[in-house]
Amino acid sequence: MDFESYIRDIEDFPKKGITFKDITPLLNDTEALYSASIALCDFVCDEKIDKVVGVDSRGFIFAPLMALWLKAGFVPVRKKGKLPFTTISESFELEYGTDILEIHMDAIQKGEKVLVHDDVLATGGTAKAVCNLVEKLGGEVVQCNFLIQLTFLNGAEKLNGYDIKALLNY
């Protein structure tokens, strides 16, 4: 399937000079959504996955779908203060400052095989913070997968040593 035809560019969003990759046309099409979900799962091949971690907020779209296909649990990673139970946190650098992500302290057990998913790999800071959280809890990151990778931002460099897969590369 030509997934790229379902991605539209929005110029100057969220600010001037940025071209936003809008995935909503893909989400609105039943066949494209279904096919993308399966294609993302296919990246992990026959690897046994215990948990699929989805990153706040667009990572929450495909991660639960993949968890169902892979017969795994779904774990949300959210911005600070959004999870109701006891959490651990990880700070990471943004273009203009820092942010904090959190995960429930009981979300991943030692030795569990984990797939990390987000919609876009840009600079890599968010994905690296999520990998750190998984490893703090004793999980093993099997793969980081994304719907889109913006290769010109070199985010994969921050994820050196992790298996990285993306459905679309720009």
From TrEMBL:
It catalyses: AMP + diphosphate = 5-phospho-alpha-D-ribose 1-diphosphate + adenine. Pathway: Purine metabolism; AMP biosynthesis via salvage pathway; AMP from adenine: step 1/1. It holds the Pfam family Pribosyltran. GO terms for molecular function: adenine binding; adenine phosphoribosyltransferase activity; AMP binding. Keywords: Cytoplasm, Glycosyltransferase, Purine salvage, Transferase. The keyword Transferase applies. Its EC number is 2.4.2.7. Homodimer. Belongs to the purine/pyrimidine phosphoribosyltransferase family. This is Adenine phosphoribosyltransferase. The gene is aprT.
